[in-house]
Protein: Hydrolase
Amino acid sequence: MSLWTSLEPASATVDPGGSTTVRLRLRNTGDVVDEYRFEVVGPLAPWAVVEPQALRLYPGTTGTVELTFAPPRTPDATAGPNPYAVRITPTEHPEATTVPEGNITVTPFTEVRAELVPATVKGRLRGRPRLAVDNLGNTKLTASVSGSDNGDQLSYDIHPSNVQIEPGRAAFVKTTLKPRQIIWFGSAESRPYTLAVQRSGVAPLDVEGSYVQRGFLPRWLAAFLSVSLALAVAFVMLWIAYQPQVRSAATERVQEAGVSTLPPAPSPSLDAPKAPSAGATAPPAAAGTQQPGGAGDGAGAGAGAGGGGSEEKEAEAPERTAATAVRRLAAEDPGGRHICYRAYVAGQGWTDPVCDGETTGTAGSGTPLTAVNIAVSGTKGTAGNAFVPNPGSADDTGHYPEAWSSVADGIDNYVGSTEEDAPKMLGFGINVDGGNGNVCHSTYVHGDAWLGLLCDKPGDALDLTYAGAYDNDSWIEAFSLTV
Structure:
């Protein structure tokens, strides 16, 4: 080797958005004049500047090159140690390339942004805003979400109430607002509220929103009912006050004439009717009445049969699947991306289909899922597979027993089994077309509660996200999906 090198310092620290400089000293220990070219390699290479980029040294002389590292204040600047190297290529002897190595530690920083979508919601009995939480820092974010308002006028159902977000990713929190008192009549009232994103040891990030509570019945209906009630009461009072008195003069005239109004008593009859004898002939049946054994039996039977055949049986309602639910959303929002799904709970059957981040399954019941039905719109299709126990595995993990199932938009995709002896699902893998969004999920695993929100990489058709556990002794009980 005809070159001696030294990095000063070999390890350095830099804050995102700042810069640090490392000096590279080198000496030409050869016997010819040579020119050296420099190139920084490693994860910090995009943010490194070499000055000068080439250096010419005579034999036995020493030169210095400055390496300036300036990582941006973005999630791309990963916190922690980041090794790098400088490739030094001699012009005269390119085969004698030297690569000294160093280390730059990027300090962590946290930056969180939250936004309500929409900021104002309207309703009579509830409102459903969504809170988008973005992790703009370079470390994993763990936070809880809670709601509050002045006067405790609203109740809050927040899911999930705890989130874990990787750097550069976002999580969506579904919130259901319910007023504690119903406005039966009158105009709408605005109820401001606050959703707080709380991190350990840091002041909460408050996001302001407004819930406009509408009256259950319009104001004009209240006025109409009041006027109607008043008119009804007035009519009853007038009827009672002016009810006409009706009297009969017939009784008075009879009494004046001294005539009794009672009818004369009947005189005894000499010819009393005799009781019918046991052998008397029964009276003929009325017209249209069926007599046992008579000729009318056949007609009566025919009439009964005709009456039964005219009753229409109720047609069974078609099964509501994930595809029927997602087609309805696609018709309402043709340009959007949607995902609908339902779960087959062991011993209970299919749940009703839900969409876009709603929860399905029986979280906390201990009952496993054995099959999942998924359908999408606006993503050019989806693919999935069920992950089930593998008792024969050496590492006590499950496996994918079947090939991946891939379908187009608006088509039901089924993974798992609904048979009576079907194996429990440890979890399932899913992805959508790489150019049309990505899949995020939150999963409730038996014995491990709700896991954090996870997503696959957007724009990567070969990437997938896995919802569930891996051990043979665990299983999935509930989940939610978004695209």
User: Anything to note?
Assistant: The chain has three domains: 3-106, 112-213, 322-482. Helices lie at 219-241, 250-257, 297-309, 322-332.
